[in-house]
């Protein structure tokens, strides 16, 4: 199947590591141009170099996305360099453990800043260009918005907000032919996941307990499986799909708890 991405330009936030890295690489493998926006120039460049070595096209823009000015800079950089934006993948986020009891009003607002403000800011600044290309937006959410996790109010509120914005933006952008969808991972082995599991007491036992409860094949989802759905939704092949929240999680969020 030809996804029709050739020479189209896609911004991937947090595109240097984990799920974002897999999305960046798949866009490039399909002939698109990936603009990796993330806070570490070194990490960004490593992924850009890997993509170029594999024969693809990618550039990086270093940005701390919690700052609105940095989001504007990502969009300005992309348009100056390529003259167009065909899609935005809002992916960067951090499960930062700001709990109701353990956190504070300041930490809660800082968590929203890290996890949801840039989803809005980038979409806002990209909109004039997405209108020109009938480009589209794919957000990466989390099952935490459905299930809770405990001790992560800022992250959970952000991910719930992202689900709401998916429907809201899908409606607002109908007149422009811009589609908006969200992909929900649950358990994917990435640097973020590794840091989170190691923050728990007995991480090995906890990991084994989680994996045993993933209905489909009792294994974690791979970053590539999240990327496959994301890039499908970015492409014109999914041309009548908008406002959808798609779970790529081996059934972890919704299937019957009694499944052994
Ligand atoms: P990851 O391994 O930490 O990779 C995320 C990348 O984004 C890192 O390069 C990180 O930089 C960068 N980043 C994060 N916040 C940023 C910011 N404010 N400004 C600039 N760069 C930023 O994370 P991941 O596991 O691939 O997660 C990607 C997305 O999937 C997130 O939205 C996450 O909530 C969601 N998700 C993941 C899982 C899972 O099981 N892994 C489950 C549910 C949802 P640093 O390395 O410097 O922090």
From TrEMBL:
What's one Pfam family the UniProt record gives for this protein? adh_short_C2
Residue ranges annotated for the Ketoreductase domain, each copy included? 8-192
Concerning InterPro entries, the annotation shows: KR_dom (IPR057326), NAD(P)-bd_dom_sf (IPR036291), Sc_DH/Rdtase_CS (IPR020904), SDR_fam (IPR002347)
Signal peptide: which range, if any?
none
Q: GO molecular function terms here?
A: oxidoreductase activity
Keywords associated with the record: Oxidoreductase
Q: Which protein family is named in the record?
A: Belongs to the short-chain dehydrogenases/reductases (SDR) family.
Protein name, entry field: Short-chain dehydrogenase/reductase SDR
What is the organism of origin for this protein? Answer: Chitinophaga pinensis (strain ATCC 43595 / DSM 2588 / LMG 13176 / NBRC 15968 / NCIMB 11800 / UQM 2034)
